[in-house]
TrEMBL record, chain A:
GO biological process, one term: porphyrin-containing compound biosynthetic process
Protein name: Radical S-adenosyl methionine domain-containing protein 1
InterPro entries tied to this protein: Coproporphyrinogen-III_oxidase (IPR034505), Elp3/MiaA/NifB-like_rSAM (IPR006638), HemN_C (IPR010723), rSAM (IPR007197), rSAM_sf (IPR058240)
Residues in Radical SAM core domain copies: 1-228
A UniProt-annotated Pfam family: HemN_C
SUPFAM superfamilies for this protein: Radical SAM enzymes
Any one GO molecular-function label of the UniProt entry: 4 iron, 4 sulfur cluster binding
Gene Ontology terms: cellular component: mitochondrion
TrEMBL record, chain B:
Reaction equations catalysed: GTP + H2O = GDP + phosphate + H(+)
Segments forming domain Tr-type G: 50-231
Membrane topology, record value: Peripheral membrane protein
Lineage: Eukaryota, Fungi, Fungi incertae sedis, Zoopagomycota, Kickxellomycotina
Provenance organism: Coemansia thaxteri
Protein name per the record: Translation factor guf1 mitochondrial
PANTHER family hit by this protein: TRANSLATION FACTOR GUF1, MITOCHONDRIAL (PTHR43512:SF7), TRANSLATION FACTOR GUF1-RELATED (PTHR43512)
SUPFAM superfamilies linked: EF-G C-terminal domain-like, P-loop containing nucleoside triphosphate hydrolases, Translation proteins
GO CC, any one term: mitochondrial matrix
Length: 383, 655
């Protein structure tokens, strides 16, 4: 079991900074963020903050001073735990790399870099402003400032990529990696320009079989280099290097999202209900509402027990450690994992080598093989 | 409000798509009521048989039968001329949608001719070949028939079939050319076709346009002049032919009868020749156009009788009724409808079985031509084997089941009734491929197998002759003859296995003739045929619901096609799925659906939860509609993919 299972009342904060933040209304938006932070954290004063995550794609474009103001404000409202994880997402462009030290001084203690690929041509096509070499250099630089706490993203299954190209690229990336890396298969979402290009055959992606081979060899190569696939797309050399913040999502813990289009999941201390909400996506509208009411919530819903149970299993089984009965009962209102799940299907998949069901430890986990097809298995084991 | 006689069940009335409400206007009552008639019943006793005509309109689909009926009803004031009367007699949603008549209707009209008042009963008939059984039933109540032919299209295959049906029953056939106002109309050519095909004098043929009303005033005089009055005698004891029934939630079974001798009135005790059961008559009347009570029904008249009959099963169509203690010789009756197409019907969700059972019962209440047998499939669970008169009948039934009763069903591919002759001299009808013996058993115990045949009539322009001949031969057809019914049009007769026409024959016929060919058929008995059972195996396990019986010559092509189609519709699962088709113990074709090796969402963080859960629940819903055969999940399309037919086989319209 991971060492930092959530004690009730430990929160994460996600600060979502969309690109427009950096070009318009700079100060005004920092003000709105702080307003929303105050409003949202106020009801949770007696709790602790376990992680802060600056995401949304471009937070590294922000002024380090503003990042520092937000961290300090959060800490003032709900104290950060001793080993709290404070992550900043960044691009490996030279301008952003130059600010790395200042971010560290502002309170960032974990650095995440969107390297994506080492292929310069593809990076240009993806609209990225950095090269592969710059990506790796940023990783190297970050390791000197945040030793042991650097991670970066890679994507496979890109246009015209061959299995061998990917393997070579991944090995190079791992040569530079610190103790954590996230590796995603390119997903083509309907409605995106890439989807249309693919439909029209303007873009040829690796075939399904090749993508499977890429995924499997990714897991193998990472394993050879000492990286454990602790979640579908997340690899770490040691449990202490795993992302505290991301595991919060997969373990059904509570988090508050601050900023336009940020999502939140938390138990409302007043009603005891589990709430999921999303902030207004349009930055201007969001800021206006923050100024008027103190928060920019666009939509909030109560998560039913049925949904909470389903989510706990769906997200728990993304991790190799799976879900424990204790984690499940925390959201199920007492119902055990074994009484909730379709146990005949669970046992079937356990016997076929897709799942591990440990009755004594009351823990359900996917095997490596099971994790690879978990979306198919989930459909059968969830009632 | 249209109190439709064909919409008796509450379930139907509740549907959102109930037929357009029609304003019927004030009825014109031609008939006086006697002073002691307190119930306000219409008195038609003063109309003697000489002033009664019972007739029907027979036509190929789309030749304007229902439109002519609308005009005649308007002309006689049965319905008002609102300009909105469109196919008044087609009351089922499916009838209006598809433009076909499924159930026969009947309506009475009063008409003044040469100073005399006539009672005219129009007995409508279904227009499609599948329902020829109902046509002959309805014709038994008539003495005359209008043969309506589209002046632009000329004689079609169904015209021929219907003519011989009416002619065979001794009806006076009154030919008329419809749609003569159309620019494409060629009345002379159509008249010549009628002359050469039916040996009817062309000069006698009326030219009308039911749509514009042109010449319609000549129609009823022609019926009165040319159709004989009903025979029979008022002095004789009651003899009444039951020729149609329907079920009404309030009064039970309503019987449509043609009175051949004598009379029947409320309070009479009548007896069924078939069962000997006695019934007390609660109400008699005519359809005008709804049920309108009359003081009596007497010789020559056609009307309804309500007599406390509780179940449609008691109403034996073709039965003769007589007055209690005055038995008469029974009329010959009808040969019962024969199911020519069988299909398995199963609930998608096994929990729906009871509800579906109820829906099927309700629907068969008014369609006794559907035969119902319980069936249990290893693959699909409990269901029914339903027998239909034809594929259109099957499609119509399925559509009504789904739309009127909101049920989700799985219909297996249709099959015809095969016959097996065993070595010990016994024989057996096979309604479902699952019952067809295995190859090994066949060798030792079966002498030979037989399949039903039809004689098909095809009429088409000469230039399609080659394509039509080829179509017949590729469907194992045996050409009987072809004749030119005029300079340009050919009538082709050929003998075909029935199994060939329940698949995609009709669609091919239409596409190969660019829509110009018409087609009709009649049953032509059984012939020995080299039949085999094609089995479908999934991972080595035979799936009973996917089996099919076919002629030996079709095995290789069909086997490959079925395996290929299944491969396209079966989704990848966590193991390889081997699809095999086999006949006579030999594998014909093999396909593999490769194992699914990866199915996991790459990126899933806080903001993705909602979308991910939505997708999961959608997929779970989809999974519910799958049928699990062993370990393999089969989508519904898998069962349909065995059918080679596409779309519906042979619907059209007969407005």
């Amino acid at each position: 079991m991971p060492e930092y299972t959530a004690a009730p009342g430990v929160y994460s904060v996600v600060i979502w900074l969309l690109p427009e933040y950096h070009y318009r209304y700079h100060e005004r938006i920092t003000g709105a963020l702080i307003q929303e932070l105050r409003y949202s954290l106020a009801p949770h004063k007696d709790k602790e903050l376990r992680s802060i995550y600056f995401g949304g794609g471009t937070p590294s474009l922000a002024l380090p001073g503003n990042i520092g103001r937000i961290i300090d404000e959060a800490n003032k409202l709900v104290p950060l735990t001793n080993n709290a994880e404070v992550t900043l997402e960044s691009n490996p462009t030279s301008a952003e790399v130059a600010k790395m030290r200042d971010f560290k001084l502002a309170g960032i203690n974990r650095y995440s870099i969107g390297v994506q690929t080492l292929d310069d041509k593809l990076l240009r096509k993806m609209g990225r402003l950095h090269t592969g070499a710059e990506g790796l250099a940023a990783v190297d630089r970050a390791k000197t400032l945040f030793p042991g706490r650097v991670t970066f993203d890679m994507i496979f299954g890109l246009e015209a990529q061959t299995l061998q190209q990917w393997q070579t690229e991944l090995k190079t990336a791992l040569d530079h990696a610190d103790r954590h890396i996230s590796i995603y298969q390119l997903t083509v979402e309907p409605g995106t320009p890439l989807f249309r290009d693919q439909q029209a055959k303007r873009v040829v992606l690796p075939s399904g079989d090749v993508q499977v081979q890429m995924y499997e060899s990714t897991v193998d190569i990472c394993k050879d280099r000492g990286f454990r696939q602790y979640e579908v797309s997340s690899f770490a050399t040691h449990q202490s290097a795993e992302s505290v913040h991301n595991k919060g999502y997969w373990q059904g813990q509570q988090w508050l999202g601050i900023g336009p289009s940020a999502h939140s999941r938390f138990t409302d201390p007043a009603s005891g209900q589990r709430i999921c909400s999303v902030r207004i996506p349009d930055t201007r509208q969001w800021a206006l509402q923050c100024e008027r009411t103190g928060h920019g919530t666009g939509k909030a819903l109560v998560v039913s027990d049925a949904d909470a149970k389903q989510e706990a299993v769906v997200f728990g089984l993304r991790m190799l450690d799976g879900i424990t009965n204790a984690q499940f009962t925390a959201v199920s209102g007492g119902e055990s994992l074994a009484s909730y799940l379709c146990m005949d299907r669970v046992r079937h998949y356990a016997s076929e080598g897709y799942l591990q069901w440990n009755a004594q430890a009351a823990c359900l986990a996917p095997t490596r093989r099971g994790m690879q097809v978990i979306d198919t298995i989930l459909l059968e084991i969830i009632p | 409000m249209l109190q439709t006689r064909r919409l008796p069940s509450a379930a139907w009335r509740c549907t959102a798509q109930a037929p357009t409400q029609l304003y019927w206007g004030r009825r014109r009552w031609y008939v006086a009521r006697s002073a002691d008639n307190k119930r306000g019943e219409m008195d038609i006793s003063t109309i003697p048989p000489e002033r009664i005509r019972n007739f029907s309109i027979i036509a190929h689909i789309d030749h304007g039968k229902s439109t002519l009926a609308d005009r005649l009803l308007e002309l006689t004031g049965v319905i008002s001329k609102t300009g909105k009367n469109k196919q008044v007699l087609d009351k089922l949603k499916v009838e209006r949608e598809r433009g076909i008549t499924v159930k026969a209707q009947s309506v009475s009209m009063f008409y003044e001719y040469k100073g005399e008042r006539y009672l005219l009963n129009l007995v409508d008939t279904p227009g499609h070949v599948d329902f020829s059984y109902e046509v002959s039933r309805s014709l038994a109540a008539c003495q005359g028939a209008i043969l309506l032919v589209d002046a632009a299209q000329g004689i079609q295959a169904q015209t021929v079939a219907n003519f011989y049906l009416a002619f065979g029953q001794g009806l006076e056939v009154i030919p008329m050319l419809n749609k003569v106002d159309l620019p494409t109309a060629e009345p002379e050519r159509a008249a010549k076709q009628i002359e050469s095909a039916f040996e009817i004098e062309a000069s006698e043929i009326l030219h009308i346009s039911a749509k514009t009303g042109l010449g319609v005033d000549q129609v009823l005089p022609a019926v009165i002049e040319q159709s004989p009055p009903p025979p029979g005698s008022l002095g004789k004891p009651l003899k009444a032919l039951l020729f149609d029934t329907w079920y009404d939630t309030y009064v039970g079974v309503v019987c449509l009868m043609a009175v051949k001798d004598g009379s029947v009135r409320r309070g009479d005790r009548i007896v069924s020749s078939h069962s000997g059961t006695k019934y007390e008559v609660a109400e008699v009347g005519v359809m005008y156009p709804e049920q309108t009570p009359t003081t009596l029904l007497q010789v020559g008249q056609v009307g309804y009788v309500i007599c406390n009959m509780k179940s449609i099963a008691e109403a034996h169509v073709g039965d003769t009724f007589y007055q209690d203690k005055h038995p008469v010789e029974a009329l010959p009756g009808f040969v019962p409808a024969k199911s020519m197409v069988f299909a398995g019907v199963f609930p998608i969700d096994a929990g729906e079985f009871d509800r579906l059972n109820e829906s099927i019962q309700k629907l068969t209440l008014n369609d006794s031509s559907v035969s119902v047998h319980k069936e249990t499939s290893a693959a699909l669970g409990q269901g029914w084997r339903l027998g239909f008169l034809g594929t259109l009948h099957m499609d119509v039934f399925r559509q009504r089941l789904e739309e009127e009763y909101d049920t989700n069903i799985l219909v297996t591919s249709p099959t015809v009734p095969y016959q097996i002759k065993y070595c010990d001299g016994t024989s057996k009808f096979i309604r479902t491929p699952a019952d067809f013996p295995d190859a090994s058993y066949m060798q030792d115990h079966v002498e030979y197998t037989m399949e039903p045949f039809v004689v098909a009539t095809l009429i088409f322009p000469e230039k399609y002759l080659g394509a039509m001949l080829e179509l017949c031969t590729t469907h194992r057809g045996e050409l009987q003859n072809h004749t030119f019914i005029d300079e340009l049009r050919v009538m082709l007769k050929c003998r075909l296995p029935m199994a060939e026409i329940v698949t995609d024959f009709f669609d091919k016929l239409k596409s190969k003739s660019q829509g110009f060919a018409s087609f009709d058929y009649e049953e032509a008995g059984y012939d020995a045929s080299d039949l085999v059972k094609m089995e479908v195996l999934l991972n080595g396990e035979a799936v009973d619901a996917l089996a099919a019986v076919m002629h030996k010559s079709s095995v290789v092509t069909a086997g490959r096609e079925i395996a290929g189609r299944l491969k396209d519709v079966i989704r990848r699962q966590l193991f390889d799925i081997i699809i095999q088709t086999a006949a006579n113990g030999k594998i014909v074709a093999r396909e593999t659906v490769k194992q699914l090796r990866k199915n996991v969402t790459a990126k899933c963080y806080g903001g993705d939860i909602t979308r991910k859960m939505k997708l999961l629940n959608k997929q779970k819903e989809g999974k519910k509609r799958m049928k699990r055969i062993g370990k393999v999940e089969l989508p519904q399309e898998a069962f349909l993919s065995i059918m080679t037919r596409s779309g519906n086989g042979g619907s059209g319209s007969d407005s």
